[in-house]
Amino acid sequence: MDVKALVIFAHPRKESFSHALLDRVTSTLKEKQYDVTVRDLYAMNFNPILDSEDMIHIEEGQFVRGNTHYPPDVQTEMTHLLENDVYIFIFPSWWNGMPAIMKGYIDRVCQHGFFYSFKDETVAHHFKGKRALFFTPTGQPQVIDGKENPLTTAIRTVTSGWLFNANKVDVIDHVFYGRVPYMSRDELELYLQDAQERIWAL
Predict the structure, then answer these.
(1) Which pairing describes strands 131-137 and 170-177: parallel, antiparallel, or unpaired?
(2) What confidence tens digit (pLDDT) does each residue in 49-72 have?
(3) Burial bucket for residue 151 (CB in 10 Å: 0-12, 13-18, 19+)
(4) How would you class 159 by CB atoms within 10 Å of its CB: exposed for 0-12, middle for 13-18, buried for 19 or more?
(5) Do residues 54 and 108 lie in contact, with contact meaning Cβ atoms separated by under 8 Å?
(6) Is 162 in contact with 98 (CB distance < 8 Å)?
(7) Interval 34-44: pLDDT, tens
(8) In this structure, what CATH number is given to the domain that contains residue 73?
(9) CA within 13 Å, CB half, 31
């Protein structure tokens, strides 16, 4: 059976290193004969705003939502998550976090009742056996005084470290590529080769 990979990408500039990373990752996945779906959030003009009627809240001790159905664009993304085996997130670090459009994707798509549940343990089982790999280019150096940059540790904790803590997805790694704006093309190519090797190792 073919392995299906979902690439969720956020960067507005096609000339960016992030976009070069997207191209290298997707081409390598296809070389591995994976069935690849790319969700380029900026190209899609994805709406990152979670409306009040779509968010969960508590009434009389119960989690409820105003709307009984998820919006059509959210349902589309949910279907992609369910149908794919491997998730690859590619997004830069801006202001020590993910771009707003990626955060909005998570807010709107990774909803209670679909992605996780405090009431129904079977929800998590829909994601059992799925894997995730994260790539984050950043301007920050990744090693300070011989240790991982504390910002990197913090960003990993609040992104890949918490996203799947309530379901069964296995996070393979969260790879950070540092000092990207200050590096030569040859140095950036080494990053791309590293990403390529990590995809081949899946």
Answers:
(1) parallel
(2) 999 999 999 998 888 899 989 999
(3) middle
(4) buried
(5) yes
(6) no
(7) 999 999 999 99
(8) 3.40.50.360
(9) 12
pLDDT digits 0-9 by tens, 86-135: 999 999 999 999 999 999 999 999 999 999 988 888 998 999 999 999 99
Strand, helix or coil for residue 129: coil
What percent of the chain clears pLDDT 90, i.e. is strictly above it? 82
Range of the domain at 58: 4-200
Strands 147-148 and 143-144: antiparallel
Partner residues linked to 36 by β-bridges? 5
d(CA 199, CA 131): 12
> Residue 82: what pLDDT?
97
Task: Give the position of tokens 């992104």.
Answer: 159
Residue count (the chain): 202
If one counts the domains in the chain, the total is 1
Which runs of consecutive H residues, i.e. helices, occur in the chain?
17-31, 72-83, 100-109, 122-125, 150-158, 160-163, 185-200
Task: State mean pLDDT over 152-160.
Answer: 94
pTM of the model: 0.95
